[in-house]
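Submission checklist for the structure archive. All mandatory fields must be present; incomplete records are returned to the submitter.

[x] Identifier: Glucose-6-phosphate 1-epimerase
[x] Organism: Tuber melanosporum
[x] Residue count: 282
[x] Sequence attached
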Amino acid sequence: GFVLESDRVKLSLPTGESAEILLHGATVISWVVDGQEKLFLSEKAALDGSKPVRGGIPLVFPVFGKSTEGPTAALPQHGFARLCKWELLGRTSEADTAIQVDFGLGPENLTDDQRNQWPYEFGLIYSVNLSMSSLETKMLVRNEGSETFDFNVLFHTYFRIPDINNLTIEGLKGTSYKCKVTKSEAVEEEVELPVRSEVDRVYAGVPNAVQVKNGGETIFKVGGTNLEDIVVWNPWEGASKMADFGPEDGYKNMICVEAGAVSKWHSLEPQSVWEGSAVVNI
Ligand code: BG6
């Protein structure tokens, strides 16, 4: 099923799975499988468009983090895609086992300030595909202008988890990463990476799907196409300093494992298209 409300789209399958996507930021804020919510959404998250959503799957484009130089330096952290109201393009397919909805964003949806901050002619098409045991998010970036531009893309996915102290992440061993907490670089040594304190790492060039595990059992498998990097983030007790993070100990029930193309710039020539997708399997 497909229901359009004033500020969101609701998708559902006859077998009970569902997803909810806000037009604000085209942010997926809910994904339910087997009656269980799979995404973490802060109880203090602003859903009215006044700020990016703290939880769900905010979209990062055209810059990951905050640039201090270059063509994205004027943009806020993580760019504008998560701040804008997207256009609903419609549902592109619907079957008993899967349903897809597409959203679009272009310069016409930006404020004058945002257009001045990043003055390129671009078109984004974002597709969310709900199936019985997976959620696929796909971004198509088109350069509609006459100047080459550089970009990052990332699906900033907040997974809901039973307990951070039982969590491990598998699939990163041997991959080099930059740690934003200790401002250092290293190669991952852990087969199963535990998260027992604040973590903020960009793993560059992750070869295979990554598994999020609870007590040794895989609860999410994160794979994709053309998204070579994985960011792992949990603010730990620092969450209490974020005005929109709640409950205060909610960091124990979330982990961000974010598939993206962020460790280097992707360059897109005039009239070219780039496409990347992330698939999360239960
Ligand atoms: C992560 C970054 O992806 O997003 C972190 O690696 C950042 O450094 C986090 O703190 C949340 O960012 P924001 O802008 O949503 O608070």
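[x] Structure attached
Curator remark: The chain has a mean pLDDT of 97. The two ends are 21 Å apart (CA to CA).
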